[in-house]
Amino acid sequence: MLLLMENIVSTNRKAYHDYSIEETYEAGISLLGTEVKSLRESRVNLKDSYALVKGSEVFLINCHISPYSHGNILNHDPLRTRKLLLHSHEINKLWGKLSQKGFTLVPLKIYFKKGKAKVEIGLCKGKRQYEKRETLKEREAQKEIQQHMKHRR
Questions:
Q1: Does the pLDDT at position 4 exceed 70?
Q2: pLDDT tens digits, residue range 43-52?
């Protein structure tokens, strides 16, 4: 049995609320040394970030990684554009899907896997207001069912 060591640093909970996720991809992320140290301290915010395909590369935009607390004058820019590392066939597939109307790339979570920083990006379609309400109602109903089942045991 293979155990994968995943240390989740941050999740984008707003993305799960605002978008319906069609597909997910795991991508490496190109970081500087002080950014990795800040990630290990969980000082990252994915709230308003998104991914963009430019040519044959994918970039993560508006991901805020706070400056490292023990860094010096050579600390990184918190909102710099970071390159995501994907295979070319995955990028081509994303490019085809993104050309369709309504799709966007949103980072869902950042985590460490075998010592390397990874980003899970989702190919998402925006939800309408009524869809968001329906999702909340379904979640509440599931929670009530779980509570009743717990009390019956």
A1: no
A2: 888 888 888 8
Please report the sign of the dihedral spanned by the C-alpha atoms of residue 11, residue 26, residue 106, residue 139: negative
Q: What is the pLDDT of residue 101?
A: 82
The pair of three-digit structure tokens given for residue 45, joined into one six-digit string: 């915010």
Q: Quote the CA–CA distance of 85 and 91 in Å, as a whole number.
A: 9
Q: Which residue type is seen at 74?
A: L
Q: What is the mean pLDDT of residues 139-148?
A: 88
Task: Compute the distance between CA of residue 81 and CA of residue 87 in angstroms, rounded to an integer.
Answer: 19
Residue 42 belongs to what H/E stretch? none
Which secondary-structure segment (H or E) carries 54? strand 50-54
Please tell me the distance from the alpha carbon of residue 105 to that of residue 103, in angstroms, as a whole number. Answer: 7
Low-confidence winner among 115-119, 132-136, 144-148 (lowest mean pLDDT): 132-136
Instruction: Answer left, alpha or beta for residue 55, where phi above 0 means left and psi between -120 and 50 means alpha.
Output: left
Give me the residues paired with residue 26 across strands.
120
Contact status, residue 83 vs residue 102, Cβ threshold 8 Å: no
What's the length of the chain? 153
Domains of the chain: 7-127 (2.40.280.10)
